[in-house]
Every structure is written in structure tokens, then in C-alpha cells.
Amino acid sequence: MPIEPVQLDLFCSFQDLSPSEKTIHPRHYKETLRKLLSEDLDFHGENSGYATHNFHAFPAKFPPQLPKKFIIGLTLPGERVLDPMSGSGTAVLEALLLGRHGIGVDIDPLALTIGKVKVTPVDLGQLIRSGESVIERATHTLRFKRQELKAALAARFDPPTKKFVDYWFLGETQLELLALIQEIEGISDHNVCRFLEIALSSIIITKSGGVSLAYDLAHTRPHRLADKVPRSPIDEFEKRLNKNLKHINKLAWGAGQAHLVCGNTQTVGIADNSIDLIITSPPYAANAIDYMRAHKFSLVWFGYSIDSLGRMRGDYIGGERIHNFKMANLPAYAEGIVSKVSEKDSKKGNVLRRYYTEMTLSLSEMFRVLKPGKAAIVIVGSSIMRGIDTETALCLGEIGKTIGFDVVDFAERRLDRNKRMMPARKNALPESQIEERMHKEHIIGFHKSSRPDS
Ligand SMILES: C[S@@+](CC[C@H](N)C(=O)[O-])C[C@H]1O[C@@H](n2cnc3c(N)ncnc32)[C@H](O)[C@@H]1O
Fold first, then answer.
1. Residue 195 lies in domain
2. Which residues of 114-129 are buried (b: 16+ CB within 10 A; e: fewer)?
3. What's the whole-model pTM score?
4. CB distance 87 to ligand 1 below 6 Å
5. Of all protein residues, whose CA lies closest to atom 26 belonging to ligand 1?
């Protein structure tokens, strides 16, 4: 997949500035950031499914209220908000809804498509017509053109991808999925096509039910349930589409702009000193949430081969491949944690060193693109490796300081177990330390000083 550089015009419009939103005086900026960090950041019980936020399941997405709070508190309409690991585009959508210019970068093709669909206005009437036609024609093909459909299925995948598809999807499910996909692929309007693809993908990557033989794909390492009776893709697609359409129906898109691009957070291709706020939530260390593991179930249906997805996975932050990886020198505290893990398991120690190296590059890039005097809000959770807490927030805080950031404060937030999808640990007691750590996360408030020495 080609990596498109972000091309940004350097013009910002403040015409829509609402009188209630005023510039924060630089003297009060850090104080404002500290205050925001001290407030309730849990947002339990709040509705996070408004606008297009719930179009597709996404592991460890943050509640929209979190970016919203910092966007309102630290930026003005028209200003640029960047999420360099944008996932399903929560922060970018919030920026758009709040009249800012949201920019998202992510390496994962499914994340990117989900994000783009969430921020792209589409004509409701056209969507309804296209959706109905896809369902009608797919049903017809399934009934009356089975031989052609079987031939198309046989020709669709290369052998390794076919092996994967055959293992995880029943033959009848495959035919139904392909009948839908062929119709979606035939739609000439790119935005409508993407919208329908995401509705289809969300019936594959789902917490319960789902059309594959996997159990709880959105949530955990996939387990194959041979006796599972998967649901009908056409029925599920219709239900999901109607649900997503209802949200579009009520939506006011906001006065902002949104751009989402495929790229690597370590080299985002954005101009120096051009971003007004960064808000992001990087992957956990040690691949605690393996995005590709679940996303490939959907991406194989959209033209990606299983081998190409495997290669792509090597560039995700938190990956486990360390061969030929150029490791950075880490500051003392992070080095100490890596050494502790290495003493127990040298391979795991190197995996953690890789993570902190990648995050060093990512934080350096954030520092470069951020305007002086502005903030980067980084939301992280700790992982446990060989029984040792990776202390991710403290280590990233320390790494950020070596890059030039000032750490204004750390805050903590408790995850809503019912909402934020984290790796499930089936056998752990709810009170166990690991569970506890996986269900809280830290928010680091970085500030890039206006003066290099302050
Ligand atoms: C915790 S998720 C972000 C979730 C997001 N805040 C949301 O609300 O949906 C982390 C994201 O980092 C992305 N990522 C991993 N490695 C990356 C890299 N090298 N460059 C850019 N994005 C990367 C993953 O694809 C994933 O979407």
C-alpha cells in the first residue's frame, strides 16, 4: 500500500471563531493544560456512540469525550489537531465536529478506511439506494448464479489467503460475502463504496456473533469454534447498514475539515511547527493489542493477500520482530525497565527496547511538527512482560523530556470495562494486578516550550 505524504496548505481560517472561544494567553497555557489533566477523564456512563463514532468496532479506541475536552480546552476553531496514530479516527472526527482541522495518520489500512468513512459526508438518499440495490442483487446472484459465484470465489484468493479464508469462514458464508462484495466493488462513487465496505467489515469484526467461525474477534485472540453457526452475511449486513444510516440521518457534520492519510507515525510528512494540538493513543508495548490479527479477517475480503498483511504488520509499533532493528539508546529509567525484563527473558527485553525505540522516533516527530508553546496529549497503558510492569507512562515521559518536551503532568483514567475493548484475560481474577493495570491508563501532558531553554 503506497504511503501518501500529507500535503497541507498552511492557511488557517479563523472566520468562524465563536466569541466564547478565545485564545489562551501563552502565560496561562500550561496552567490550562494542568487543569484539564486534573479533571475527570473517565467519562463513565457518557454516551460515546453519537455521530459516526460507533460505525465499526476498534480495539482500545478512546471515548470521544477525551479528545473533545482537550480540543475545546486548548485550540480554537480552524486550528490543526493531529492524531499521528489515529486508529478509527475518534480525535479527527471530534476535531471536525468542533470546527477544527483534524489530521490523522495511521499505518493500518482498515483503521484508515474506518476513519475516512466516519469523517466523510455522504448523501443519505444515495446510500439508501445503493445499499438496497447491493442487497437485492447479491441475494439474486446467490440464488440464481451460484456457479459463476463459485468460480469467482475460486479465483479470488492466492493459496495462502485461501487457506486462511477456508479455515475461518464456512463455504456458504464465503459465497454470501463475495456476492455482497462484488456488488459493492461495482459502485462507482468511492465514498458510497467505502461506506458499504465498512458496514460489511463490521459484521466480520464483531464482539459477539459475526459471520466467521472466530469467537469474539473484536476483543481477543481469535479462537475457532468449529460448531459455531455463523450468521447470514446478507442479513447481518442489512441490519448493520440500517444502524449506520440512522446515525448519518441525524448528523450535523460540523464546520471543520478532516484529513486522514496512510503513513508511519515516525515520519508523518507534515511541516515543522505547524500543528496546534496533538492527541493520540499509541499501541501498547509488546503487541498487547495486535491490530492486524483481527483486521486481516476483513482485509482479505478487500483484496489484501495474507502474506502482504503479514509484511505490513512488521512496521506496526510494538511488533515483535527484532532482527536487524536499529535500537535507540534509552534514558536511564526506561533502560532500567528494559534491563529488568531482559534479565528474565532477553527476547522480550529486546521487544520492549524496540517499542521504546519506536516511541522515541514517534515522540521526536510529534515534537518537530508541533508549534512551539503547544501540547501533545499522549494516552498510554502499561503492559506486563514476564511479570514486570513496563511503566510505559513514566518511560515515555522520560523519553519525551530527552527530546525537549516539558512534562506538565500525568493523569490517570479508569477504563470503562463495558466499553473500551481491551484484550480479555479469561482466567484472571478481576482484582488481579494485571487486570487492574490493563483497565487503567495514563495521560501524559507534554508541552513544547516557546523558548528552547525554558
Ligand atoms: C490505540 S490505537 C488508536 C485508537 C484511536 N485513538 C481511536 O480512538 O480509534 C493505536 C493505533 O496505532 C496504529 N499504529 C501502529 N503502528 C503505527 C505506526 N508505525 N504508524 C502509525 N500508526 C501506527 C495502529 O494501527 C492503531 O490504529
1. 124-249
2. bbbbbbbebeeeebee
3. 0.91
4. yes
5. 87
